[in-house]
Write a structure and sequence with these properties.
binds pyridoxal-5'-phosphate, about 15% strand, 12 strands, alpha/beta, three-stranded antiparallel beta sheet, 14 helices, globular, Aspartate Aminotransferase, domain 1, Aspartate Aminotransferase, domain 2
Amino acid sequence: MSAGVDPPEPLPGARLLFSLDPATAHLNHGSFGAPPITVQRTQHRIRDEMESNPDRFFTQGLPERLAHTRRHLAAFLGTPADGAALVDNVTTATAIVLQSLGLSTGDEILLTDHGYGAVTMSVDRACRRTGATRRVVRIPIEADADEVLETIRAALRPGRTRLLVVDQVTSPTARLFPVASIAAAASDAGVPVMVDAAHVPGMLPVTVGDIGADFWVGNLHKWAFAPRGTALLAVADRWRERIEPLGVSWEQESGYPQRVQWQGTRDYTPWLAAPAGLFALRSLGIDRVRTHNAALAHYGQRVIGAALGVPPEELPVPDGRLPEAASLAMRLIPLPDGIAGGVEQAQALRLRIAEQLAAEVSVNWWSGRTWLRICAQVYNRAEEYDRIAGQLPGLLDRAAS
Ligand SMILES: Cc1ncc(COP(=O)(O)O)c(C=O)c1O
């Protein structure tokens, strides 16, 4: 296929590390991740250990094992271990942060229109319960890092905005936001910031401590190859005492992070197996993985964009001035006007692509338009994007008629 760019060399053997069905093109790693087989086995072994003697598993050494895991994951992300709590996912962490803020009438939570739907819904619930209000700032798809920063800075209302929620990598639009500069601007205005970094662990090089956010949360079950249900919430020192878990446990009096992390008889095996994901990533070579994935996502965007007649300059790309732009492994392609008229039709189109093209992608209705989001991971090949590029125009023609 002619996309004007060459795909990267595949990482030899990487495909075989996964249990993914080879008959399907899995171009949506960003949604649910895919743990390598070694990680699945590690979790199975820990589960076997748990089921062989539950009393011993839960009462002998589990808090120490969890603390060790937390230290390991926190070090990988560049954040102090005593400010980090293991949680299930970004959805849970968002609810924890929102309920710990002490919101009341007159308060406002500021979001961007690139935010994740369930996070926005969580904010809405917090507003209903407390009398606070939600305000959404619009950021054009083509905004560069400076424009993103200035738009958000202008929207802050010191004294009134009690939380700014901003994504490090956005879900519906695959944008990279300059979160460190945004956090600095918010701090100048006295506005606390929560960074939704759902896609960051593993995908981008990051030192969370340098971002300066009040709250930062990232999923390890997407790009860091952890079993599903593994995320890290990092909380700045000044907030830790105020953080309340969603449910009280025996560790309530132990303070943060234990009181958040310990949730009775839950399944702790995803967290304990998460370091095996980092091991898999490091064995492949983190830099090699990142370079490969970003280059392949770029290739996929160009080849599918070309097949749909989208000029390269209309394909959103990350602002190259941000060093992390070289690692962004998700890309967006605008679909023709009229192909879907809302969220439900976008979902229907995604299913149609899955069924008719044997390809998993994300299709989103955002800002009055339908967008295809593709990802690249070490198990993907250029031929998969070539195949979709060859077949998608026909499917869209049929969908439109
Ligand atoms: C930006 C963003 N935030 C939050 C989430 C929610 O993550 P989880 O379902 O693991 O809670 C996602 C999931 O894709 C996301 O992309």
